[in-house]
Amino acid sequence: MNDLKKLGEFGFIRKIQKQMKARSPHVLTGIGDDCAILSPSGKNQFAVTTDALLEGVHFNLSWTSANALGEKAIAVNVSDISAMGGKPTAALISLGIPSNLPLKFLQQFYKGLDSACKQYNIELCGGDTVASKKHFFINIVLLGETNAQRTFYRSGAKAGDLIFVTGTLGDSALGLKLLKSRRKKWIAKERDLNFLKKRHLQPTARLKESRILTLSSLKITSMIDVSDGLLQDLQHICQSSNVGAIIDPQTIPQSKPFQRVSTANRLSTRELTFYGGEDYELLFTLNPQNAKSVKNLLQEIKASLIGEISPTPNSVFIKEKGGKLKPVKKLKGYQHF
Amino acid sequence: MNDLKKLGEFGFIRKIQKQMKARSPHVLTGIGDDCAILSPSGKNQFAVTTDALLEGVHFNLSWTSANALGEKAIAVNVSDISAMGGKPTAALISLGIPSNLPLKFLQQFYKGLDSACKQYNIELCGGDTVASKKHFFINIVLLGETNAQRTFYRSGAKAGDLIFVTGTLGDSALGLKLLKSRRKKWIAKERDLNFLKKRHLQPTARLKESRILTLSSLKITSMIDVSDGLLQDLQHICQSSNVGAIIDPQTIPQSKPFQRVSTANRLSTRELTFYGGEDYELLFTLNPQNAKSVKNLLQEIKASLIGEISPTPNSVFIKEKGGKLKPVKKLKGYQHF
């Protein structure tokens, strides 16, 4: 009989309940009743998002640690709340646990969850744990609040708006490439390889950057987080806003480790930065009158200007050297099925 | 290439979005952005619950229809919100879809979801669809509202309170027994067998009954829904309230089909009604001064008096014929792992 069987479902839940220390003032009743009860603060709206992570599809237990997995499960959902201009408050987690998964793994996983919850001020307020036939799976639901006047949708971009993205792109996709081909000899410094892998395994949600944008007076017209790949997520904005976009590939922000490893190993930086996905950076559009006066703010959140919204619906173009516009034909961001 | 692959993830989501017609005034932004945005009404609190359903663990595709599965996935969560005295508003659904699952099955499943959403006034406002390696899995999150003065927890039961349960118990457990042993010859009318199977496959959440209780002036001291089995859920109330309970087995409500089938086939009605689970009836405790004056109300919601709360913490007793009290030693309700 394994550890989990000994504990039983309710014993396991009690154990986990004690382990999770992060609290939110919004949670009136947490784990242990039929529902969690939350209180809205003032006139804020509720934001809610959910993400499912499957062993063998979204993560591989041979190269991710339980702790990192717990942190990432929270971070990817915080990224969605951040992309709306919201503040996360409470999470629920459903787990499908195969019988051979060690209890120690689960404890480490919850340690990662708890540490991410503390980092982003979230309380784990409920969930469901079930036995899974074969694969480990995780479903996180994250609740948060948004101010009605400062909630950012995918649908508000207008022709002439400037397109910004925070941080750097492609690190996570390159990190995943490294993880997948561990036996290959890469021409690279260990430190660079570790930076890129960590960007994939333990991404940071841009909550701080989102708070700065939301609390500013910037005229943000649309926002999304880059999870499916820059061009695919930009297309989501274009579709919802009924506009197009022109991107300057020279301006796509890249980290130093990314540049060094991709150059030394002759990898296509465009493939990785345009289609890679899982960057969890914020992609947003800004009214152009507004952008010039706020250089400091944009510097503070490390936002780069990468293009402009155009009036033609659903047309995304790459501005090649010499100014020629090349249409993006087929978006290759990650799709399930 | 199967139908799902042809559609792609986003094509599938668009298709489903069109199919889901049920709407809620609380949902300001539904499917199609990074988060759903909800508005709280007045000073109500939010209630949130989640349930994971796995193929091979919670359901068997050889005996449940896609439509019934969709209905049940919503109903079991509505049951949790009802058990707190809440009203459901919005749902999110995560699906793990194996590649061999026909698109038609998914459409029927969403038809069931939509019909249950309409029945309980819920809007599907978001979710996540991912490819699953082997088994189909469903995770539902249900949001609702509760009035702070009329939110019922597991923790308020006091010695002397009367214990009530709505509807009848054991039908679902017997229905599951029938489904599992389809080849066996049962001494029973077809109509009775169908009634019992339906109670397992398409349970009705007691939302209407919960609304009547919540809007009444009854002094309800605790409430839970019977999902793990009567005795196990009663133990949850006893643990949370630091009390005990005495149950009279003669008063456990049983349906006519349940009585006929269990008698004719010599099945233990006690095993089925005490430990069966998945009844989705409401189990609640009432201040005794209150109970006598509200017979009509209790009749309207088909509530039966089945016992009394006692002062000894965590002690559940069965009152046998002649008045002898027999302790419930080990609770055998459903536990994962």
How does this structure look, described?
With 337 residues, chain A is of the alpha+beta class. Chain A folds into two domains: 3-150, 2-Layer Sandwich (60s Ribosomal Protein L30, Chain: A), CATH 3.30.1330; 162-327, PurM-like C-terminal domain (Phosphoribosyl-aminoimidazole Synthetase, Chain A, domain 2, Alpha-Beta Complex). Chain A has helices spanning 3-19, 66-83, 103-120, 171-180, 190-201, 207-215, 230-241, 256-264, 269-275, 288-291, 295-300, and strands at residues 27-29, 36-38, 45-54, 87-98, 123-132, 137-146, 162-166, 220-225, 244-247, 282-286, 303-310, 316-319, 325-327. In chain A, helix 1 (3-19) packs parallel to helix 3 (103-120) and helix 2 (66-83) runs parallel beside helix 3. Chain A starts with a helix and ends in a 10-residue tail after the last strand. In chain A, 54% of the residues are buried. The model of chain A has no long low-confidence stretch (mean pLDDT 90). Strand 3 (45-54) of chain A pairs antiparallel with strand 2 of chain B, so a sheet runs across the interface.
CATH class of the largest domain in chain A: Alpha Beta
Which class of secondary structure composition applies to the elements of chain A? alpha+beta
Oligomer: homodimer
Order of strands across the biggest sheet of chain A?
8-10-7-11-9-12-13
User: How many β-strand runs of chain A?
Assistant: 13
CATH superfamily of the largest domain in chain A, please? PurM-like C-terminal domain
How far the N terminus sits from the C terminus of chain A, by CA atoms, comes to 37 Å
Q: How confident is the prediction overall: mean pLDDT of chain A?
A: 90
- List the secondary-structure elements of chain A in sequence, H or E: HEEEHEHEEEHHHEHEHHEHHEEE
pLDDT below 50 for ≥5 consecutive residues: which ranges of chain A? Answer: none
Main interface: chain pair and counts: A-B, 70 and 70 residues
Sheet with the most strands of chain A? 7 strands, mixed
Task: Indicate the radius of gyration of chain A in whole angstroms.
Answer: 21 Å
| Net shape of chain A | globular
